Structures are given as C-alpha cells and as structure tokens.
Amino acid sequence: MEKQIAHDLLSIKAVFLRPEEPFTWASGIKSPIYCDNRLTLTAVEVRNHVEQGLAETIKREYPEVEVLMGTSTAGIAHAAITATILGLPMGYVRSSSKDHGRGNQIEGRLEKGQKVVVVEDLISTGGSCIDVVNVLREAGADVLGIVSIFTYGMQKGLDKIANAKTTNHSLCNLDVLLDVAAEEGYIKPEQKEQIIKFRNNPSDESWIK
Length: 209
Known about the structure:
Structural class: alpha/beta
C-alpha cells in the first residue's frame, strides 16, 4: 500500500519534489518538498486508493472505533468518505470555536466516552492534529489515535504525537516516497540524501546546494 500511495501522490503532483529550487513555507523555512493532498479528491482512482487505505488502516489498527473526526479543513472530506465506507458517523473539529450560533468547535454529535479516530491528510510537525486530539479529549472523547495520508516523519512531529500519548498510522511516509520517486525518475538518486537531510533538521539549510 505504501508504494501504491507514493506512486499515486507523485503522479498527480500532490507531493512535489524540487530540491534544486526549494519552496518557501509560511514560517520562512526553505523546503525541497511541497504537499497538497487535496488534489487526491479530484483524482478519482487515487481517491479510491486513499479512502480504501484509510478504511483498512482504521479497521486494522483501531477496530473499536465508533466515530471519525476530520481535521479542519483538509481532513473533513477524507473523514466523510472513509466513514461512509465503514458505516460510521463522522464530524470534524474547527481550528477555533465559531463566533456565532452555539460557538461550536466540534461539528457533529459526539457523546462523552465515544471512541474516536482522527483523520488527517498530512503530518509534518504534528501541531494541528494534536490540537484536535486535545479538543476531543476535553469534550470527553476517548481518542484511539490518528490516521493520515502522508507523513514527513519529522522528529518534532513524532515527539508531539508521543507526548500526547497517542499514535499515528500513515498510508505513506517520506522514506518510501523518495524510494519510489528515485525509481520512477522524479528525482535523481543522490537527491534523496538532500531531502532526508532537510527532513531531519528543517532549520538547517546546509542541504541546499
């Protein structure tokens, strides 16, 4: 599954590798990789692979799940489609409470004690998905863990997930994706080391040649 998803993400340019001409993140950090998993929603075959993969992962890793909760906004559609496959209820968590109506931050019905899996599209530093986990826990949910489409595997993200005493299972990760990218000619084999060096320490720009 990891190699299939890697091939899919590369083929539709949901993950784009450009070590020779780095992207600049909002934080100012220069990056050789850009990821936009929203593109999977408009590529039907890829979307089917992703949603079936998420459903299979949830059934395998979190068989007690009672409700899926998507992260806002990228995780919402994936949570909805996967919940339909699994026959489960779903909702989503806003980045902040609404300033009107009932002021909800959690959308959809959630009962205290319900077993929840968070659906995320991308994990980098892990901040946004852990914020969602914390909101759900404060509301009384039993958060079993997280599923995601892709992860960079950054140490900061791994530490945040571990410190939150939860787990993440991604359909694909950067190491597998780089192997596939080199095999299929998206990057040169020697560029793998550059990108891994970035992943291991994003604030160190010595990987840029």
